[in-house]
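User: Quick sanity check before I run a bigger batch. Here is a single chain. Can you write out its predicted 3D structure?
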Amino acid sequence: QGQLVESGGGLVQAGASLRLSCAASGRTFGTMAWFRQAEGKEREFVAAISAGSGGKWYSDSVKGRFTISRDNAENTMWLQMNYLKPEDTAVYSCAGRLLSRPYSPSYSVEAIYDKWGQGTQVTVSS
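Assistant: Done. Predicted structure follows.
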């Protein structure tokens, strides 16, 4: 079936850094992404990465501060978050589209992803 498990969340002060990890197992994923959902708000796209890491995309709100990466040999994806702001506070979830499915350019659309992790809380205090 495939499984995604996030880790690395926590409570930090504004300006600090965190590195989130997403460990994949059971299936091979193509495009993978990070989304986040703040309390009382809809889930939003954060960043995505193509299967071979040649394509990386970011939301405007995190561009220049966050970096997405992956290591297919380790079946792991990361999100390095620098210069964190209180508005970055949210539950961060990783998502993966099965490699067996056709490529989709709609990397920021939740519906293209087949598997989701359970999420990890990131809280940034001011």
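DSSP finds no helices and eleven strands in the chain.

User: Great, the batch can go ahead then.
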